[in-house]
Specification:
The protein is an alpha/beta fold and 440 residues long. The protein folds into 2 domains: 261 residues, Rossmann fold (3-Layer(aba) Sandwich); 54 residues, no CATH class. The protein has 16 helices and 13 strands. It is globular, with a radius of gyration of 22 Å. The N terminus is likely disordered.
Length: 440
């Protein structure tokens, strides 16, 4: 029992949805999350929905870095979990994509050789979605060619050209835009990401789900068949897909204020994570900037067609992102280059998800580094209590503790519990009501 409680506490540090403001999420995301009944299922369906939706956002891009490299919405995600952990709910996101696939083929089977996989991607113009709920299907097929698959997926994550040479000649997919959602065990995950130095580790979003769910009576019997929600959301995404497909490529962007906030945020995260995990985690933090922008752009797309209309000829208004403008007006406010701009609520959601994904990836990083063989190795995720403690000033007030905890995605109740524990351990003393000082 104690072991299970410890696992629950570890998973609490990694939870994503419970730290989001549901009212700020696009309606489609809220509806998909409503399919889940446990905290773990909510996190799984959230990430599965984002990965699946990322395949349905053609011709929308943002530029990143000093070279202005183009990035598209496509996410690649692995949900690492044991059996009976609720990961099966990820298949609801596949049902959403099937609605689009019926009219615009995009599904690519993971259960195929590298040559067949490449051919399917090539025939679809380098665009597609791969969804496999059994990691063993992937790893069994890939055993003899895992390294080449790893390289191909890594290049696809960066939209870098994938080429192959055969007797009949060479071919190249110049601008691959592949989205992917896989679920499986640690052994299956490690077949794809064999080491922490492997370049694919930092490009693959990894969700770590610990423990298993109890018996759920929903599965005894049901009437009316599968929920209609994935198909309803799929129909919305189909309209968005078709609208974007009819247009030329369109730039989406963070506002200047959001860009500055993202830079400052990841600079802080960089110092924290590198200090705790070492230089090999460098790429994961750096590349999380791209993943956060991708997630924010997906949220924009999931708000529907009106949010994706161009704001031709409009200069960025001073009231941008203020309460003086409604949501649609804000997102339609563009510069003369007709770029779309990110809503503050979508940026905040994406940043919070990015915070949690760094913790999940830190957990996976330590599993790989520890070379464990269990289904989900019992290696604790990054101790977020230590992260929070180190970010606090030598003397701090309760409101500062809560504010810093909120920034890191830690609930107020959890932060207060940790603060009580620090006092019990003698590393913090209470000066007066609501005011504390670190010892030493």
């Amino acid at each position: 029992m104690l072991k299970n409680l410890n696992l629950m506490e570890e998973q609490e540090d990694l939870r994503i949805v419970e730290h989001l403001d549901m009212q700020k999420l696009p309606e489609s995301v809220q509806q998909m999350i409503s399919l889940a009944s446990t905290a773990e299922e909510k996190d799984i369906i959230l990430m599965a929905t984002l990965a699946a939706a990322s395949a349905c956002v053609p011709n929308l891009y943002f530029t990143y870095g000093p070279t202005g490299k183009k990035y598209y919405a496509n996410l690649q995600c692995f949900i690492l979990a044991a059996a009976a952990s609720g990961k099966g709910i990820a298949n609801q996101a596949l049902e959403m994509v099937r609605v689009i696939d019926e009219q615009h083929p995009m599904l690519i089977a993971g259960d195929s050789t590298l040559a067949a996989w490449y051919k399917a991607l090539e025939e679809q113009g380098g665009v597609g979605y791969m969804h496999e709920s059994e990691g063993s299907v992937i790893t069994d097929i890939w055993k003899s060619d895992a390294a080449n698959y790893n390289t191909a997926l890594r290049k696809a994550a960066e939209h870098e050209a994938i080429s192959r040479n055969r007797v009949k000649g060479a071919s190249e997919i110049k601008n691959p835009r592949l989205s992917m959602l896989l679920t499986g065990t640690f052994g299956q995950y490690k077949a794809l990401v064999p080491s922490v130095e492997n370049g694919y580790f930092s490009r693959l979003l990894t969700v770590v789900i610990r423990g298993t769910n109890g018996f759920d009576k929903r599965y005894v019997s049901s009437k009316g068949g599968q929920s209609a929600i994935p198909k309803i959301v799929g129909q919305r995404m189909l309209r968005t897909y078709e609208q974007l497909s009819q247009n030329q490529e369109m730039e989406w962007s963070l506002t200047d204020a959001q860009k500055e906030r993202l830079g400052e945020h990841l600079e802080t995260e960089y110092g924290t994570f590198i200090g705790l995990l070492g230089d090999n985690f460098h790429s994961a933090v750096i590349r999380m900037a791209v993943q956060i922008e991708r997630i924010a752009m997906i949220l924009t797309a999931m708000r529907g067609n009106s949010a994706l209309s161009r704001g031709a000829g409009n200069e960025l208004l001073s009231e941008f992102n203020s309460d003086e403008m409604d949501g649609e007006s804000r997102i339609l406010s563009g510069k003369t280059d007709e770029a779309l701009y990110c809503l503050d609520e979508d940026y905040e959601t994406a940043e919070m998800i990015g915070n949690k994904m760094l913790l999940h990836m830190a957990s996976a990083y330590r599993m790989i580094d520890g070379d464990a063989q269990d289904v989900v190795p019992e290696i604790k995720p990054l101790d977020q209590r230590k992260v929070l403690f180190e970010q606090l000033k030598a003397t701090y007030e309760r409101k500062e503790l809560i504010q810093e905890a909120k920034t890191q995605g830690v609930s107020e109740r959890t932060a207060e519990r940790w603060n009580d524990k620090w006092q019990e351990e003698g590393i913090v003393i209470k000066l007066e009501h609501g005011r504390y000082r670190k010892v030493g």
